[in-house]
Design goal:
Blueprint (H helix, E strand, L loop, with lengths): L2 H12 L32 H12 L8 H9 L6 H24 L3 H18 L10 H18 L7 E7 L2 E8 L8 E7 L14 H6 L3 E5 L5 H7 L8 H12 L4 E11 L2 H11 L5 E5 L6 H7 L7 H9 L4 H13 L1 H14 L4 H8 L16 E6 L8 H8 L4 E6 L14 H16 L1
Parallel strand pairs: 3-4, 3-5, 5-6, 6-7, 7-8
Antiparallel strand pairs: 1-2, 2-4
Amino acid sequence: MDRRTLLELGASLAAMATSTFAVAQPLPPAAAPNPPAAKPPLFPDDVQFWYETQRAFGAAEYGGSLFGEVLTTAGRIKAGDYDSWYNEWNAIADRLAKEAADQLARGHRVSARDNFLRASNYYWLSEFFLHGDAKDPRIARAYKLSVDSYKQSAALYDQPIRPVEIPYENTTLPGYLHLVDDTGRPRPTLIMHTGFDGSAEEMHTFGARAGVERGYNVLTFDGPGQYGPLHREGLVFRPDWEKVVTPVVDFALKQPAVDPKKIALMGLSMGGVLAPRAAAFEKRLAALIANDGVYDYADAHRAAAAVPPEKHAEFDEALRAKDAPELDLKLEAAMKASPTARWAINHGMFATGAKSPRAYFAKTLEFNVKDGVAEKISCPTLVMEAENDLFFKGQPQLLFDHLTCRKTIMRFTNAESAGAHCQVGASRLAFARMFDWLDETLA
């Protein structure tokens, strides 16, 4: 969930602060977020649609979109209209996939590769806002076509990107092995996963190809709660993420091209708390990257609900209560009042298996590295922080402060156009610095 989502969610929830749970004195109203200096050029009054459009623009840095395609597609979308969003992104994805299939049939491999890659990203974008109804057939269609298109693109690279199924409990986790070459030479390897709402396919443009360019093998995967396992089997997020990462490390160590002494892990967005949690217990990692760093995921939700620190315990108790009808009504009202809040909570319920908005908020309480967990991380750790990421405001520094390992904090600013959540739109800048750190750390 990006920082703009939580800001708007906060504005919707602020009015309910005094009646959310029993307190002796009414809570102070939440401070309204500072408005941006200028409204964005697209979707000026819909922060969520604009952020996801920025995300689409940013994918162009590694071939996942074209500036002109994003611009014209976004121009046809009606702000706040989920059906319009789906229809337009799905339409361009269908067109590109058809064109790619025709190009491949005529032997134009590079053209087909590029079109399949963009089609995959646009299919993924198309179903982004539909999760309020998990049975909507458009979700399954878009998921299948996104993955199919990506696999067709992956097979057409000079060094093919290999789809993998990683053994996990009684099933498998989908992922991709991006190898530098086919020599089998052991190389440093970066394991990467996304967070709240991304995919292993999207990680192609969020670091995987940047790694290959620098001589790293990269293993991307989706864990429970993320794109593949969630859509395929309904597997939902779990807080003990080491139970997810350890089987992935086991799998990586069986690959001949992986240097067992140089395996690093990166978690993106919500992955900024999941990956540190895993690294606290998985000791075979040589380095950890939290982009952006998160110490307590629930803090963002408490802030959105305008709960001051001294009232956190009471708020958490209300979330966990068997019955809290007044809080339930307030959350439902917030969803009706704000399309952004509606998406954030609907997707949260979809990805965690929560049966109600309050149950989703309660689930977030489990995702943290508190109570000495962060202090258990022993490998060198990079914490990334975006200046304008108000959702995780203060969280990277908090995580950094609790680390007792060799550690670095890396800040990205608005002045260098890298201040957005996870440096969206400035990937080449961010990944250059990130991989430079990893080069020096693993050396």
